[in-house]
Amino acid sequence: MALKFEYDKEKRTAVVCGVEDEFCEQIVIPSAVEYYRKMYDVVAIKTHAFRECLKLKSVTIPNGVTEIGVCAFECCSRLTNVTIPNGVTEIEGSAFCDCCSLTSITIPNSVTEIGGLAFYGCSSLTSITIPDSVTVIGCGAFKSCSSLTSVTIPNSVTSIGQSAFSKCSSLTSITIPNGVTEIGDSAFSGCSGLKKIEICNDQGRVKIDSGAFYSDVKVTYLGKDAQPKPKQEVKEQPAPEVATPAPTIDLDKLIDAAAAEKQREAQPKKKGFFARLFGKK
After folding, report:
1. Three-state DSSP class for residue 45
2. Cβ(160)–Cβ(138) under 8 Å?
3. CB-side exposure of 197: number of CA atoms within 13 Å?
4. Cβ neighbours around 199 below 10 Å, total
């Protein structure tokens, strides 16, 4: 297996630009290469470097590589897994487009942007973890990844591009963190298995373009304004004691009763039975 390189004599760096045997099954990219008795550090994989290497099954990329160019591995239909080294800052557009046998991909914490169509048509890819260094998921980045069942989007992401996850028909649910402020047109359209999307923000704080979601999906906002306010506990107050009212006195009746008593006392007493019998006075 012989690789092709381009050299920068001033920087003493080399860029992988292709392979002589396009039917090779395995590629190991060295961290440095000798050129005219001088060593050059390998720092990048050039645009279209391994495009349509139809028998390529595995590739080893050294830690010194910081750039994977546009369409670098496009249409490598037998490529099954790739480990992207820590140091790569951007996975450029269509880098792994139509790698339909790719089942797993490791994206390091150094990557800040996943370019448009980067993993388009990777129909065997089942799960993807996006590190918390990524801020942008480009247009169509994971479009038509029909076996994708799980996606972890970190809070660092601020923008999900147009059609980024369109036609990911095996996705059933997804959580969009509160760092995301923009969701592009058709971002999740055609996701026929997607039943639930949770957006960890308030509705007015996220710009959502038309047709962003599949028509049958249930969208729930989990921002602070969307949460029910906790009920304040109200302590029951004891009922106030009701004083027993003092009995009311009818003064007029009391005066009338006293006057009647005096009148009875003033009347002469009747003689008793024996006094009347014996005539005593």
Report:
1. strand
2. no
3. 26
4. 22
Q: Report pTM.
A: 0.77
Cβ atoms of 179 and 156 closer than 8 Å: yes
How many Å is the Cα radius of gyration of the chain? Answer: 45
Sign of CA dihedral 131, 134, 135, 138: negative
Given a contact cutoff of 8 angstroms between Cβ atoms, the answer to whether 77 and 54 are in contact is yes
> For 30-76, what is each residue's pLDDT tens digit?
999 999 999 999 999 999 999 999 999 999 999 999 999 999 999 99
pLDDT of 217 reads 84
Q: What is the DSSP string of 184-239?
A: -TTTBTT-TT--EEEESS-GGGSEE-TT-B-TT-EEEE-SGGGSPPPPPP-PPPPP
- b/e per residue, 93-111, with b = 16+ CB within 10 A? bbbbbbbbbbeebebeebb
* Segment (H or E) for 104: strand 104-106
Q: What is the pLDDT of residue 266?
A: 60
What separation in angstroms does the CA of 59 have from each of 63, 89, 277?
13, 19, 151
Contact 198, 175 (CB under 8 A): yes
Structure tokens at 35: 């050129």
| Pairwise pLDDT comparison (228 vs 67), residue with the higher score | 67
